[in-house]
Design brief:
Number of domains: 3
CATH superfamily of the largest domain: NadA-like
Strand order of the largest sheet: 6-5-7-9-8
CATH class of the largest domain: Alpha Beta
Largest sheet: 5 strands, parallel
Number of strands: 13
Bound molecules: 1,3-dihydroxyacetonephosphate, iron/sulfur cluster
CATH architecture of the largest domain: 3-Layer(aba) Sandwich
Shape: globular
Structural class: alpha/beta
Strand content: 5-15%
Oligomer: single chain
């Protein structure tokens, strides 16, 4: 069995991308930068449970004790509880999940258990918000550690996107609050937000004829958008937007970057008029670590090696790989490979290690030699899970994610459009 990422980090701190991760997550949680409110529109529970304030007894419990407590609390809560876990969660958490999947599958899983009173989401903030928006109004969504945000999601905030929208609409000579179709029946522009964004931005898309996408349906969603509009404003991940649109035949010159710190996003009016996809200046700090050099080295070491990467990786990396796809697509690629195959993966280390352990007859490795977990996914530790579950057994809800109903109703429009979008036959 491959060592868990916890062990790897503890064993090789100097090889980790973030030495702060060597400490327990409760120490790491007190590092400024993340916490309740780090994702905009975060409704703070009252009383606020600050990250790093996990009751000390849970910080001191052994792995065995935490395991026994989680198993017992889960058994007591029975059908009332559903635990969802993203592929990037550590093994020590994934083993308790009723559903494990990519962000699209987990959004659908949240819809599939309307009878469960509580959804405990072992993932990051935007995923728990989405579960709250899609679930029934009498269901409660809990994020075990409120400090589990997503740095990419935070790269697009509501007011910067509103400002960008106004400037862009002004360039096209349309009212930003009332963009209407032209003589061809198409809108000049519509917004597309990656699932990795706040509920407020999903609501923005809902209000402006836009839609949400995930890495598993981005091409379908862009097709949907181009049927209705001449252009899209795609946020926050420039790489997913560029990789997807490029594969659909959109020229790079027609995909200018929108830098929210610059006038007209750093573009000329002409560039904006010629654009098909305006790419927000966001990225994932885990996936941008993957490089073409790593792929070249892997191929030099083994010319038969197959390479698959997540589409949040830079374009040059996706182009140099044999395949790219969502976390679920990566999982399927590995499952479809043959014993003896060698596969280099460009995605988060917990998932790569789990696949390597699941398929010991294949040689599976992470392209990045430096161990780099998603530092926010990592914040869901069994200690937090044991705490929120035992509190639930006592009838107390901690770390609830509750999206404002007005935001939620508009965000749901954009999410429902995504759920209804089907790939062209
Ligand atoms: P998936 O939709 O592929 O699960 O990706 C979510 C994510 O955050 C990847 O960094
Ligand atoms: Fe966000 Fe990147 Fe972590 Fe995914 S891997 S949750 S995009 S920071």
């Amino acid at each position: 069995m491959t060592a868990s990422v916890n062990d790897l980090i503890t064993l090789t701190p100097k090889d980790s991308c973030n030495t702060k991760l060597v400490a327990g997550p409760w120490d790491f949680d007190t590092v400024p930068g993340y916490g309740p409110g780090s994702s905009q529109a975060d409704q703070l529970p009252d009383p606020v449970s600050r990250p790093g304030q996990l009751p000390e007894r849970y910080q001191l419990m052994s792995d065995t004790e935490l395991d026994e407590r989680i198993v017992a609390a889960k058994a007591t809560l029975g059908e009332e509880l559903v635990i969802l876990g993203h592929f990037y969660q550590r093994d020590e958490v994934v083993k308790y999940a009723d559903f494990v999947g990519d962000s699209f599958q987990l959004a659908k899983a949240a819809l599939s258990r309307p009878k469960a009173k509580t959804i405990v989401f072992c993932g990051v903030h935007f995923m728990a918000e989405t579960a709250d928006i899609l679930s029934e109004s009498d269901q409660t969504v809990i994020l075990p550690n409120l400090a589990a945000g997503c740095s990419m999601a935070d790269m697009a905030d509501e007011s910067s996107v509103e400002t960008a929208w106004e400037e862009i609409c002004e360039t096209y000579g349309v009212d930003p609050e009332h963009v209407v179709p032209d003589a061809e029946g198409k809108l000049p522009i519509l917004p597309v937000t990656y699932m990795n964004s706040s509920a407020a931005l999903k609501a923005f898309c809902g209000r402006h004829g836009g839609i949400v996408c995930t890495s598993s349906n981005a091409a379908t969603v862009l097709e949907w958008a181009f049927e209705r509009a001449h252009r899209v404003l795609f946020f926050p991940d420039q790489h997913l937007g560029r990789n997807t649109a490029k594969a659909m035949g959109v020229a790079l010159e027609q995909m200018p970057m929108w830098n929210p710190r610059k006038a007209l996003g750093g573009n000329t009016e002409e560039q904006l008029r010629e654009a098909k996809v305006l790419l927000w200046h966001g990225f994932c700090s885990v996936h941008r670590r993957f490089t073409v050099d790593q792929i070249t080295q892997a191929r030099a070491a083994d010319p038969q090696v197959k390479i698959i990467v997540h589409p949040e990786c830079p374009m040059e990396v996706v182009d140099a790989a044999d395949a790219s796809g969502s976390t679920d697509a990566i999982q399927k690629f590995i499952a479809a490979a043959s014993p003896g195959d060698s596969i280099g993966i460009g995605t988060e280390i917990n998932m790569v290690n789990r696949l390597a352990a699941q398929y010991p007859d294949r040689s599976i490795f992470c392209l990045d030699p430096v161990i780099c977990p998603c530092s926010t996914m990592y914040r869901i530790h069994p200690g937090y899970l044991a705490w929120v579950l035992e509190e639930l057994v006592e009838g107390r809800v901690n770390n609830q994610i509750s999206v404002d109903p007005k935001v939620s109703s508009h965000a749901k429009i954009a999410l429902d459009r995504m759920l209804a979008a089907k790939p062209k036959a």
